[in-house]
Design goal:
The protein is of the alpha/beta class and about 325 residues long. It contains 15 helices and seven strands. The longest helix has 17 residues.
Length: about 325
């Protein structure tokens, strides 16, 4: 599984949420009034966060939406993207449910998106001397979707699911993944997606079907850039964007290690956020030693806007 798989899912759910909802929960999507917007409640979810097992990573998103029935009540959607089988997964979903219900006293529906092949039911059943409870939630197993149907489906998350399926089937076969990535790009070209949707899908596809071969990546990058007329500012950098950053650093290192690192840092900012303001360029060029650069580089890499970059410099 790619290093940033968890981050990939968080990003694609946030950026393409209406499509996510219509793909995985079409009945709910029909009742939601997206014209009133939606809100991600990550801080609320963090307050009731369960401790995961060491080494385990999950993608938890909590979203507030409004329905079309004209009432003031609101709905919480709890999403889990689960990567591998866990015997107590149903219990963990139930714990999230009752903590959210106890705290907010609102209608809650839950969805688990399973990225591995399984026919397992994750209902949580409690039965102790006549005291019983059954908790059942929505599940979507990506491996169970038909490849042919996904290829015909125009929803962007059909391509997300195809990338996940291909990663699971051909994780150790870089030639196969390379060819499949190119096929997915061809599908992108034929669909009426917006520029921003295409960028998000390219990011997901490239990282989900991760390959290490330099020449294959260059071919993929060239075909990718043919779709994009110009770069868009992005807070999350992955795949072909990271490779552009690395190439900038390598080019700059011909001028010396420090100059190379500074050039690579400026390249990274351009890729993430667009044109680098003059005062930030000047502050970067004023860095005179690698120790100082290393102390701020991680923070700059994780920054989501130039305001955060200014604070680091």
């Amino acid at each position: 599984m790619p290093v940033h798989y968890d981050e990939l899912w968080k990003n694609i759910i946030e950026k393409l949420f209406p499509h996510f909802l219509s793909f995985f929960m079409p009945e709910l999507s029909a009742d939601v009034d997206l014209s009133q917007g939606h809100e991600f409640l990550d801080k609320e979810l963090q307050k009731i966060k369960l401790k995961g097992k060491k080494g385990k990573k999950f993608t938890d998103k909590l979203v507030k939406v409004r329905l079309k029935d004209g009432t003031e009540k609101w709905l919480l959607i709890h999403v889990e993207v689960q990567g591998e089988h866990e015997a107590d997964f149903g219990q963990r979903m139930f714990k999230y449910f009752y903590r959210l219900y106890d705290k907010h006293d609102v209608n809650i529906t839950a969805l688990a998106v399973l990225t591995y092949k399984t026919d397992q039911l994750y209902d949580f059943n409690y039965d102790v001397y006549g005291t019983t409870h059954q908790y059942r939630f929505n599940t979507a197993c990506i491996a169970n979707y038909s490849e042919a149907e996904l290829q015909k489906n125009q929803n962007p998350f059909a391509l997300v699911c195809l990338a996940v399926q291909y990663d699971s089937l051909y994780r150790d076969d870089e030639d196969k993944k390379f060819n499949l990535k190119r096929e997915l790009i061809k599908m992108l070209r034929k669909r009426a997606y917006t520029k921003d949707e295409i960028i998000e899908l390219l990011e997901f596809i490239d990282d989900a079907l991760h390959i290490t071969d330099i020449m294959k990546n260059r071919i993929f990058d060239e075909e990718t850039m043919n779709i994009l007329e110009e770069d868009k500012p992005m807070a999350y950098v992955s795949g072909f964007r990271q490779r552009a950053i690395l190439e900038g650093k390598l080019e700059g290192k011909l001028e010396g290690e420090l100059k190379g690192e500074l050039k690579g840092l400026q390249w990274m900012l351009e890729v993430k956020f667009g044109t680098v303001p003059n005062e930030i360029q000047n502050k970067i060029q004023a860095i005179s030693d690698l120790v100082t650069l290393e102390s701020i580089k991680d923070g700059i890499f994780q920054a989501t806007d130039y305001e955060q970059v200014r604070k680091l410099l």
